[in-house]
Design brief:
Transmembrane segments: 20-41, 47-65, 91-110, 116-138, 166-185, 197-220, 248-265, 285-305, 317-334, 340-362, 394-412, 424-447
Number of domains: 2
GO cellular component, one term: plasma membrane
Radius of gyration: 23 Å
Low-confidence stretches: 1-9
Number of helices: 15
GO molecular function, one term: symporter activity
CATH superfamily of the largest domain: MFS general substrate transporter like domains
Mean pLDDT: 87
Order of helices and strands: EHHHHHEEHEHHHHHHHHH
Structural class: mainly alpha
Pfam families: MFS_2
Strand content: under 5%
CATH architecture of the largest domain: Up-down Bundle
Strand order of the largest sheet: 1-4
Largest sheet: 2 strands, antiparallel
Protein name: Glycoside/pentoside/hexuronide:cation symporter, GPH family
CATH class of the largest domain: Mainly Alpha
């Protein structure tokens, strides 16, 4: 493999501009991804009138398609000759408009008047076009790009923190704005959707996504320039063999799956927890506000502590704090919602800290892979990690319903028995606590990239590239 780092006098040093640009890149992603995650099923079922079973089948089938397109996009990034504006950054330029248009096309309200078969065809084509082709075409390069913006582990931690801040703020903004536009109250006082407003907000979010991607493209620079020689490129099978021997990647995937399971299950159970156990749904908004606040409060500490003590070391402690908070809630059987929210904020702070630096773990894994194999495979490694997260999200997303059925939850009942309400509380606290504890154990005992090892890998790659000049 041949390549070199661009000299410092050729490009500006890494700084706040790169961090803000990378944050806006995730804003751009989330204007389509979070909006789809939160409201696409609502559009399909409430506006188009398609059954939830068909929608669920489509979402699951798309994950199988993603197995090929995600890895395929990673391979394209790793094997194509880089453009003048970068190996990954160039894809932000190419795909910004297509992904925005594809997102808009999923929410055309006039499709509600089509035949049922036509609706299903429309859903399948537009959803796969957006998620498996266009979104993959920009998200895989965007995520992989963090490893070449800077070779410094501290800089990469900062990028991860700003990316997570962007995701958190985007989620807050989208979930505040969208309901105000999508829902209205009819004459009987019922909450109903406004079909045409889905289209309007999708177009607005699409335009905003393009703006955010443009800021990302303009602000971020690829400083680590590594171009693989054609004779050094390996087959996909050879690449997979090397990657699936990567202990750091496999343990990170395991930790990420447990993290997603804890987060998604906790979110899905909170509605039932406050409705049936605390019997106060008005506190849900308060809970969401303080939960986001706790996660954002972790941001200033994430870069500083991970740089001082190491990502593995500080991240393991933070996720243990989250586990301890939820296990404490489980054993105390708290009846005061105020005390519960306070402890939950502690849990969200610990989880938020870990989540702020999780993307920096990926860049360390990419370096680790290159040290082991002498092959630079940013796109392929990130694509496999990204796909595993999609599978985890899909599985965890449906777990809440299975859990409710298993504990005897009566969906149509005005109220639940005390036994069922207590089981809801137990699931909402014990399950996240055990998952967070699992993340701690994996990161502590299986994940090999300590602060010292990350620094050693970074020094080794700098030495190799210096020898190739």
């Amino acid at each position: 493999m041949s390549g070199n780092n661009q000299k410092n006098n050729q490009v500006r040093p890494f700084g706040l501009k790169d961090k803000l640009g990378y944050m806006f890149g995730d804003f751009g992603n989330d204007f389509s991804f979070i909006f789809a995650s939160s409201y696409l099923m609502v559009f399909y079922t409430k506006v188009l009138g398609v059954s939830g079973a068909i929608v669920g089948t489509l979402f699951l089938a798309a994950r199988f398609v993603d197995a090929f397109t995600d890895v395929g996009m990673g391979r394209i990034c790793d094997t194509m000759k880089p453009a003048k504006d970068g190996r990954f950054r160039s894809w932000i330029r190419r795909m910004a408009v297509p992904v925005a248009i594809a997102s808009m096309l999923m929410y055309m309200y006039f499709v509600k008047d089509w035949s049922y078969t036509a609706k299903i065809i429309y859903m399948s084509v537009t959803y796969l076009l957006w998620g498996s082709i266009c979104y993959t075409g920009i998200n895989i390069p965007y995520g992989s790009m963090a490893s070449v913006v800077s070779a410094d582990a501290g800089d990469r931690s900062a990028l991860s923190t700003f990316r997570s801040m962007g995701s958190t703020l985007a989620s807050l903004a989208i979930n505040v704005i969208a309901p105000l536009i999508i829902y209205t109250t009819d004459e009987a006082g019922n909450q109903v959707v406004v079909p045409e407003n889905f289209t309007i907000i999708a177009v607005v979010f699409g335009i905003l996504a393009i703006v955010c991607y443009t800021i990302c493209y303009k602000f971020v620079i690829e400083r680590v320039q590594v171009t693989p020689k054609k004779e050094e490129q390996v087959s996909l099978l050879q690449s997979f063999k090397g990657i699936f021997k990567n202990r750091a990647l496999l343990s990170l995937i395991g930790a990420a799956l447990m993290l997603l399971l804890a987060m998604i299950l906790s979110q899905s159970m909170n509605t039932y927890l406050f409705m049936d156990y605390f019997k106060n749904t008005k506190l849900l908004a308060v809970t969401s506000f303080f939960s986001v606040g706790a996660m954002l409060a972790a941001a200033p500490f994430a870069s500083i502590l991970s740089k001082k003590f190491g990502k593995k070391e500080s991240g393991s402690v933070s996720i243990l704090i989250a586990a301890a908070a939820y296990m404490l809630m489980f054993f105390l059987k708290i009846e005061s919602p105020v005390v519960f929210i306070v402890l939950m904020m502690v849990g969200y702070f610990g989880m938020g800290f870990f989540n702020m630096i999780i993307w920096a773990f990926v860049t360390d894994v990419i370096d680790y892979q290159e040290v082991r194999t002498y092959k630079r495979e940013d796109g392929t490694v990130y694509a496999i990690y990204s796909f595993s997260r999609k599978v985890g999200q899909a599985l965890a997303g449906g777990l809440g319903g299975f859990v409710l059925t298993a504990i005897g939850y009566a969906s149509g009942a005005a109220s639940q028995t005390a036994e069922v309400s207590n089981k809801v509380y137990s699931v909402a606290t014990l399950a996240p606590g055990l998952c967070y504890l699992g993340v701690f154990l994996v990161m502590t005992f299986a994940y090999p990239l300590t602060k010292a090892k990350v620094q050693e890998n970074s020094a080794e790659l700098i030495r190799r590239r210096g020898a190739q000049k």
